[in-house]
From TrEMBL:
Species of provenance: Coemansia asiatica
Gene Ontology CC terms: mitochondrion
Cofactor annotation: pyridoxal 5'-phosphate
Record's protein name: Cysteine synthase 1
GO biological process: cysteine biosynthetic process from serine
Amino-acid biosynthesis among keywords: yes
InterPro entries (alphabetical): Cys_Synth/Cystath_Beta-Synth, P-phosphate_BS, TrpB-like_PALP, TrpB-like_PALP_sf
Entry's localization field: Mitochondrion
EC top class named in words: transferase
Pathway in which the depicted protein is active: Amino-acid biosynthesis; L-cysteine biosynthesis; L-cysteine from L-serine: step 2/2
Family matches, as CDD domains: CBS_like (cd01561)
Name of the coding gene: CYS17
One of the record's GO molecular function terms: cysteine synthase activity
Amino acid sequence: MSARRLYSTSARFVTSTKPTNGFVGAIGNTPLIRINSLSKETGCNILGKAEFMNPGGSVKDRAALFVVEDAERKGLIKAGGTVIEGTAGNTGIGLAHVCRAKGYKCVIYMPNTQSQEKIDLLKMLGADVRPVPAVAFDNPENYNHQARRYAETLENAVWTNQFDNIANRQAHIETTGPEIWAQTGGKVDGFTCATGTAGTFAGTTRFLKEASDGRVKSFAADPPGSVIYSYIKSKGKEMIRGGSSITEGIGQGRITANLQPDIDLVDDALKIPDADTIAMLYRLLDEEGIYLGASSALNVVAAYEMAKILGPGKTVVTILCDGAYRYQSRLFSRKWLESKELVDAIPEHLQKYIVLA
């Protein structure tokens, strides 16, 4: 084979990107992936922001970096200090990485309902992990309140308060939104994703709305057990919970400070059943070779539904929050799927991927 032929076949792997400045320099600038099967089916361009390609493996790397650097700018933490957070997992993992890179201690309070993979990874990253019973936010023993109280007992320590610290939202106004806009050449018609802290959803929505003079539609995606769907549908008159979900880290029982400034920018909401989420998770693995967690799969279902609402020819973007590696002992376990009555939601030809007992 000639040298010329060698170059032409491998040219797409050549990049001019320079080395990054450590772990934190690698956060962001993730690819935007066209989901071919769903795009063909709907006649739209359905695109997923591949946040699982962040160095810490999730979209929460962005928020973790911004809340820590915000604390540094404000003088709330100095060298050798401690970062404390209440998190369902991915923000904690991002914080643990950032703390290691910056030389801080990291303490994570989290609901004891989270996957063992997440807990183990946090410990391997050197975090002090404190699982506590999962209770509602209005309970004083909620993991966020416990994190705050512990931070108050220490010197040179900060509770990063991801749910109501708008540095989280700012991360997506400054990075995720502009990246999506640039990667689509401004040709984006719809954006959708689920909310937990709502930093990703609100910040990206804010940027895309302003960049497009309001043209881009924004739909909130919501799992069972969350109030966001009812709040948006009722224009703030109702906050109805109901049911529970297999998803982790998304869904909410209140309007966070990250969401509040942008709630009026949201055009609609979609309620996504767990059965649709798990079916999409297996479908994406089989048809696209993309190995996603349940929250990411829910986002893709929402993008698929949004595309059908907006109609052919539109471009819809969502967030592929993280991969399935942090949840595989559940999502690919027949016993666990049976306990959630979800096996039958997976098409028979895809059940070959249920490889764990």
